[in-house]
Amino acid sequence: MDLLYVDNPPGFQILHCLEASTQGGESLFSDALRAVDKVARLRPEYYATLENFPVTYKYHNNRQTDDLLKKPSIKAVNWSPPFQAPFLVNTGGGTFKGPYPYYTQEQSDDVAAFRTYIEAIRFFKMQLEMDHVILERKLEPGMAVIFNNRRIVHARRAFENQAGERWLRGAYIDTDVFRSRLRVLEAENR
Fold this sequence. Notes:
Layout: E1 12-20, E2 23-24, E3 27-31, H1 32-42, H2 44-52, E4 55-61, E5 64-70, E6 89-90, E7 96-97, H3 108-128, E8 135-137, E9 144-148, E10 152-156, E11 159-160, E12 166-173, H4 175-188
Antiparallel strand pairs: 1-9, 1-12, 2-11, 3-8, 3-10, 4-5, 6-7
Helix pairs in contact: 1-2, 1-3, 2-3
């Protein structure tokens, strides 16, 4: 999932393969909402934790920094560990200091909630990464894949960059723009 640190993450992502002459680099896709549903059925207490625990995302690159605190509502899944910011600790009175694991004895309730979150997110990750739920595909030049950026997580296998090249170009589409265009096309084709 990309761009979770902005107020309105894109609904759809397109990856277009321009070059794929390396060994490896297969694309991996998994359905995060399916994993959430499984967590809800198997461990409802973990589902409640994932639904209510605040997670912050951060992006910092070339003097650009974006921060966004997400209080998830599980209509879409926010899962992007490379861009996850440090967790904040409630020090009482609504003040937050962070990052974990630096906390005092007075913060034990907050620490217990964080530990429960870690257990829940590990269980979620396990559901997400089971071999039988991952779609693996090596994209060849000219191929493109489009997927729901708020539902599908994506990754890639390692590739050998000593011989050949791997180049994917990405683009994003806002969900409202996509749905609007879809409605227009459906109306034109009735």
